[in-house]
Design goal:
By secondary structure, the chain is of the alpha+beta class. The protein has six helices and eleven strands. Strand 3 and strand 4 form a beta hairpin. Helix 3 runs antiparallel to helix 4. The longest helix is centred in the first third of the chain and has 47 residues. The N and C termini lie far apart (88 Å).
């Protein structure tokens, strides 16, 4: 009887150990499954939070100053081949050019170069584009246009893949950055940035389908 009782106790102990081990394995497997699912979801969300244009990737949401911005639209500047991808970030999306230009708060224009370029070409193109759309208001901002032209000239030779960002923050002004580094001084005044936006969004834009793209129409 003692032997039988002892054997039953041993068998029961083995059963408990087996049960606990199985439960631990099941729980670990269950946990790993949830962890794997979470990782997949995180990667999916990350992929969904970026868009790709001509091989260049852009976040669909960014923070500038204290403002959260979203992509209003994208487009490709083409002249003797594809020159750059342009991306416009605003506080609230709109397909109306006047609404975008007159909207308050920070904004960003990103230019991702698809072809080698130089500061002299950019300077001339921007100055011409601003002049074509500023009308009688050009005289009031001419000093700022000249300052911006000087910043563009200072870029020198720029290679394909270079990222130029033009940020506007109301309390600071317009700041040009090249690959994340500030280029030149800030240019104060909302009037100048509005004139700059008209290079792409004005009545006489640098390229019609680029304007449409930045307004989210293509």
């Amino acid at each position: 009887m003692v032997v039988v009782k002892l054997r039953c106790q041993v068998d029961y102990t083995v059963f408990l150990l087996f049960t606990c081990t199985y439960q631990n394995l099941f729980q670990r497997r269950h946990t790993m499954k949830h962890l794997f699912t979470a990782v997949v979801m995180a990667l999916s969300l990350q992929a969904a939070s970026a868009i790709e244009v001509e091989g260049a990737k852009f976040d669909d949401k960014i923070k500038l100053g204290n403002a959260d911005l979203v992509i209003n639209g994208t487009g490709v500047r083409s002249k003797f081949g594809k020159r750059y991808v342009a991306v416009l970030y605003v506080g609230a999306k709109s397909a109306d050019p006047k609404t975008v230009i007159e909207s308050k708060g920070p904004k960003r224009v990103v230019l991702h170069l698809l072809k080698d370029g130089d500061g002299k070409t950019f300077s001339k193109a921007f100055s011409s584009g601003i002049k074509d759309n500023a009308g009688s208001g050009l005289a009031a901002i001419q000093d700022k246009v000249n300052a911006f032209s000087d910043v563009m000239l200072s870029l020198g030779d720029v290679k394909a893949g270079t990222v130029i960002t033009i940020d506007f923050v109301p309390e600071k002004g317009t700041q040009v950055n090249v690959n994340g580094k500030p280029q030149g001084k800030e240019i104060p005044g909302e009037d100048f940035f509005k004139a700059l936006l008209k290079v792409w969004l004005g009545d006489d834009p640098v390229q019609d389908d680029l304007k449409a793209g930045l307004l989210g129409k293509s």
